[in-house]
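chain below, 78 aa
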Amino acid sequence: MSISKEEAKQLLERLIFDDERPQDWVQDVWGMSPTLGETAAKLLDVFEVLITSCPEPELNNVLQTFDAELLEEDEDTY
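prediction:
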């Protein structure tokens, strides 16, 4: 099954950040430690660049690696 880049991004965000918005996650980390917050912000920037630059077939391959975990989360959502 092939999914769009936007769907892949949403699934990966859910896998990484749970139900929290990525920007909120960065702010939470920043609140605990400015040094770690800077690192969290950089990680989010890298995540965005990777999603943007990675072709859909490769994103689908990445998602297949986490398929069982993602499906489990999707089932919990419904």
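Residues 8 and 59 are 7 Å apart (CA to CA). The longest helix spans residues 34-53.
thats it, cya
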